[in-house]
């Protein structure tokens, strides 16, 4: 998994190297300062000559010309050196933090960008595998966790081991017997931390699953706020949110209450060790085998040793949390798109809008027992208008989604322009096929910006021409800002019928060879529906038009009408032919005519 993530840090290699380098200098200075303090206590305050102190730092100070200094002069000179080193250490620490932040934030941005691009490359079947709420959690909370762990690793994985080794070396150089105190305590403490971390990992994995459920609940309520109000279900949704929120809270507490044991364990270990060192050290001082300054330095090194272990425990805790996030991110990065154009001819382009289904069967999952579509054989000439009719669950949408390869067939072939759709690159195929889905989705921004999804380089005349075919130009121009009207998130400022017409205009602007309208005029009145069909017929004669509709009026003038029943083609023919021989078509027609008469 780590190999998957390292490439995302490549762009920020320099700051990722500079941060640990600054840490090295910071640690070297930090472990030197306690020795200078011991010189001040043992020589400066006591008035003893610097040469009487047996340590390498005293030898260095002598070489620097401190040998002749004594008393207050030695205190001031050594204190000034300590102050200078402390400033340099501060500068190194700040630089390390800056470089780590730059590398960490950059790493997180690159990972988030790659994850988003990966999701955009998923086929519909891949997207079906992950919920929207889960994907949002992975791109926010999980990446944030990994990003934080990466930043800590840059700063602490070098600092802690180096500080541990250097502080132990200094402590041993002061008094080997006294060093045995923390040598005995440290392994016990470290073992406890490992046990806690291994148990906490499972708890954090469960917590992130609760995050997914929580985000799904929020997303549903924000998107469907109007439906909630319309059905007076606010109380129900509040109760559902409260349950989800409480479950997330309980899962978080359950995970965190184990991890927080690290703090008490570290504190007890540090203070127990300091008490023992003070007790044994006092005896050594009274026995004349140890200086007071050395004991002060030794205690400082004990604190540095345990502080480095505490940081290691923090890294361990963070790694436990990050591991759960890492697994979830890795799932996305490792997921292979079920549909790709690896074996396609990138130079192949769709020459016309002819479509052919050859013995096509399809199911959404390989593990599914039954096919959704069964042995479909259908031939459509370029420029024809085809109507598709069928009851709910008859697989009308599934059929047309195979044309632009939103899904791939399980068996058989789908040909567009005389070639198997798998021979085209996805971009070339989908540039030639325009589809208006059942769910009419508009994006935040102006009407013009939304329509330009069909063709970014279209002129304003072309844009308005497409809108006129879709019967959208009149109502757009009735707005004070016309095509510069801001639609709001999801197109909340327009009605359902207006939204459908804008989506149709966007699809037309693409100038496709195949135009698929999946029940895309259900929210417009019959007269407007007729005008849209007339515009498509007269102004897009070379475009193959496939119209899925519940109203027979929307498709009765089509060149051919396909009647689907339970994933199979029940009949194909014109309106008159089907009305005379097909029971399903006749039944739907009669029921709709009776409804008109009642109205």
What's the quick description here?
This protein has 599 residues and is an alpha/beta fold.
| Sheet/helix structural class | alpha/beta
Rg, Å, rounded: 36 Å
Query: Count of DSSP E strands?
Result: 10
Strand order of the largest sheet: 6-7-8-3-9-10
In helices, the fraction of residues equals: 55-70%
Structural features, described:
With 599 residues, the protein is α/β, with parallel strands linked by helices. Helices cover 63% and strands 9% of the residues. A six-stranded mixed sheet has the order 6-7-8-3-9-10. It has a four-stranded antiparallel sheet with strand order 2-1-4-5, with no helix packed on it. A hairpin with a 2-residue loop joins strand 9 and strand 10. The protein is elongated, with a radius of gyration of 36 Å.
Write the layout of secondary structure elements.
Blueprint: H1 2-5, H2 13-45, H3 56-66, H4 71-120, H5 124-129, H6 132-174, H7 176-223, H8 225-230, H9 234-259, H10 262-286, H11 292-334, E1 355-362, E2 373-380, E3 385-390, H12 396-401, E4 411-416, E5 419-420, H13 426-432, E6 433-436, H14 447-451, H15 460-469, H16 473-477, H17 496-509, E7 514-518, H18 526-539, E8 544-548, E9 560-565, E10 568-573, H19 575-581, H20 583-598
Parallel strand pairs: 3-8, 3-9, 6-7, 7-8
Antiparallel strand pairs: 1-2, 1-4, 4-5, 9-10
């Amino acid at each position: 998994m780590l190999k998957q993530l390292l490439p995302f840090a490549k762009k920020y290699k320099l700051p990722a190297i500079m941060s640990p380098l600054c840490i090295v200098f910071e640690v070297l200075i930090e472990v030197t300062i306690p020795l200078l303090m011991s010189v001040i206590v043992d020589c400066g305050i006591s008035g003893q000559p610097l040469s009487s102190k047996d340590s390498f730092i005293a030898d260095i100070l002598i070489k620097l010309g401190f040998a002749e200094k004594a008393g207050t002069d030695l205190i001031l000179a050594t204190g000034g050196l300590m102050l200078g080193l402390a400033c340099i250490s501060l500068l190194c620490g700040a630089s390390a933090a800056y470089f780590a932040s730059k590398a960490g934030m950059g790493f997180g941005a690159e990972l988030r960008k790659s994850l988003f691009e990966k999701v955009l490359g998923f086929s519909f079947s891949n997207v079906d595998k992950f919920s929207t709420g889960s994907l949002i959690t992975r791109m926010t909370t999980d990446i944030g966790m990994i990003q934080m762990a990466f930043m800590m690793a840059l700063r602490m994985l070098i600092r802690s081991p180096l500080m541990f080794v250097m502080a132990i070396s200094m402590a041993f150089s002061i008094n080997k017997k006294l060093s045995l105190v923390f040598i005995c305590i440290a392994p016990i403490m470290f073992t406890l931390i490992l046990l806690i971390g291994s148990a906490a990992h499972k708890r954090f994995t469960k917590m992130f699953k609760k995050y997914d459920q929580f985000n799904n609940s929020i997303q549903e309520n924000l998107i469907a706020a109007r439906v909630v109000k319309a059905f007076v279900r606010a109380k129900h949704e509040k109760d559902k949110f409260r349950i989800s929120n409480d479950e997330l809270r309980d899962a978080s507490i359950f995970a965190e209450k184990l991890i927080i044991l690290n703090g008490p364990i570290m504190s007890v270990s540090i203070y127990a060790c300091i008490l023992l060192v003070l007790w044994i050290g006092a005896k050594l001082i009274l026995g004349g085998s140890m200086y007071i300054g050395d004991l002060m330095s030794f205690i400082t090194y004990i604190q540095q040793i345990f502080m480095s272990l505490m940081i290691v425990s923090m890294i361990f805790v963070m790694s436990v949390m990050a591991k759960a996030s890492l697994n979830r991110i890795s799932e996305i990065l490792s997921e292979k798109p079920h549909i790709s154009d690896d074996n396609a001819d990138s130079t192949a382009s769709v020459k016309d809008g002819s479509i052919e289904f050859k013995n096509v069967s399809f199911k959404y999952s390989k593990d599914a027992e039954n096919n959704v579509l069964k042995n479909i054989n259908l031939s459509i000439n370029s420029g024809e208008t085809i109507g598709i009719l069928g009851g709910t669950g008859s697989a009308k949408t599934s059929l047309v989604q195979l044309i632009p390869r939103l899904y791939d067939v399980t068996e058989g072939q789908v040909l567009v322009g005389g070639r198997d759709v798998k021979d085209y690159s996805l971009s070339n195929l989908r540039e030639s096929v325009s589809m208006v889905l059942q769910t009419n989705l508009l994006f935040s921004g102006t009407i013009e910006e939304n329509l330009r999804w069909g063709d970014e380089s279209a002129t304003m005349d072309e844009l308005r021409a497409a809108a006129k075919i879709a019967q959208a130009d009149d109502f757009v121009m009735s707005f004070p800002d016309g095509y510069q009207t801001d639609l709001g998130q999801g197109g909340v400022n327009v009605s359902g019928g207006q939204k459908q017409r804008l989506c149709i205009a966007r699809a037309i602007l693409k100038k496709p060879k195949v135009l698929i309208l999946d029940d895309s005029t259900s929210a417009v009145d019959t007269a407007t529906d007729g005008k849209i069909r007339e515009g498509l017929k007269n102004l897009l004669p070379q475009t193959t038009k496939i119209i899925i509709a519940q109203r027979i009026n929307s498709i009765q003038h089509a060149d051919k009408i396909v009647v689907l029943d339970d994933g199979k083609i029940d009949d194909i023919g014109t309106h008159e032919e089907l009305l005379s021989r097909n029971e399903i078509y006749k039944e739907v027609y009669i029921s709709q005519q009776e409804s008109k008469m009642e109205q």
